Amino acid sequence: MSLGSAATLQDALSTGTHQTEFTGTEENDLSEFLLSIDRELYIDDGAAFPEN
Question: Within a domain: residue 2?
């Protein structure tokens, strides 16, 4: 699997450098949290990056 080729968030969490040992419902909880983030509320796609 190459970078950016995971079909689902679960695939991304279980592939390559993202692999980790989840216990109980941790993987599902993490997936649900990540999917719940509201892009429009937290990410301004039009914002310029600050210059260093």
Answer: no
pTM: 0.53
Rg, C-alpha atoms of the chain:
15
Handedness of CA 8, 10, 12, 14 (dihedral sign): negative
Q: Which residue is listed with tokens 């689902």?
A: 8
Average pLDDT over the chain, rounded to whole? 77
- Residue 46 in domain: no
The range of the structural domain enclosing residue 17 comes to 13-37
CA gap 22, 29 in Å, rounded:
10
In a domain, 7, yes or no: no
Cβ-proximal residues to 5 (8 Å cutoff; 6+ apart), any chain: none
